[in-house]
Write a structure and sequence with these properties.
Two copies of one chain form a homodimer. By secondary structure, chain A is an alpha+beta fold. Helices cover about 30% and strands about 40% of the residues of chain A. The complex binds threonine (2 copies).
Chain lengths: ~160, ~160
């Protein structure tokens, strides 16, 4: 199919909450997000992988930077209750996203986007995709450089207000 | 904002490729997906989390079930070249997705979706989101039950052709 990248965005006011060694049993994610919802914490993206022959999951989610402290409190309480291995909060992250049309397969766009970041020496921390978006979490200080690199790789002009330092 | 779930979909012809203990250094994801692209393997979604104080990443991506064997060959070769800890291919998975409008915060929809899966005793393996989608990887045999449970939780009628056994 014909794939076009329509735009690239940078979201800077984020904190990443990472739960590791989460027991991989039905109902655990539901309990975590019910508690997050009860505290009215706004979640941006959620990324989960399972590992160790399916025994555990690494579950990360991003929140507005201003809600990091409350997210930490909620997750530390859940840690004890659910037997989660560890909770880390990283307040120094940003999210750079490539938005496309007709992205039913991500291979070409992912390859181009990741190579642009590699050439700019930007490390990719988390990756999340849907049919129209590929998002990468990077260090906040790398965000503007990442944005410019991806714009360049896809031949896009920088949108007004998005030209980083 | 006002959030509505417009639909729920089930994608069944998938295999999950999971790379664990991937060195978390710039350029690694680029090399992996350049090789995947070179073999014309179509990638559906990509999910990555970092762990162990940022030393490693767990990187998973889904491909069409028919491309699982080739993806395995490519990744095993990359494993040696890039120092990746392990490669696993799981051909028994499906992806269930809730598609919404105005999902700038996922908290409420995630909580409802995960609780529906929990009540149906469906284990959630991977999670990936974007502004308009929350996707969960589940065992293939759980897919139809997961689809019905999520439809019910959001008060949607099952779309024609989507009523599972
Ligand atoms: C780890 C968590 O997602 C768990 N597998 C669940 O289904 O709730
Ligand atoms: C693990 C991989 O994503 C690595 N961090 C990179 O930037 O390529």
């Amino acid at each position: 199919e014909s794939i076009t990248v329509q735009g690239v965005t940078l979201k800077e006011d984020l904190a990443m909450v990472s739960l590791n060694a989460v027991p991989n049993t039905a109902g655990v994610a539901a309990k975590i997000f019910a508690e997050i919802a009860r505290h009215h914490i706004m979640v941006d993206d959620i990324v989960q992988n399972i590992y160790d022959a399916g025994r555990f999951a690494n579950l990360s989610f991003s929140v507005n930077a201003g809600e990091a402290a409350e997210a930490r409190t909620v997750c530390e309480r859940l840690m004890a209750e659910l037997g989660i291995g560890g909770v880390e909060i990283d307040e120094g992250v940003s999210k750079v996203s490539a938005i496309g049309v007709g992205m039913r397969t991500h291979t070409g766009i992912a390859s181009t986007m990741f190579e642009a970041l590699a050439r700019a020496e930007v490390n990719i921390e988390n990756i999340s995709t849907s049919e129209i978006v590929i998002s990468c979490i990077v260090r906040r200080e790398d965000g503007p450089r990442a944005l410019r690199a991806i714009h360049g790789a896809f031949g896009l002009d920088l949108a007004p207000g998005r030209a980083g330092p």
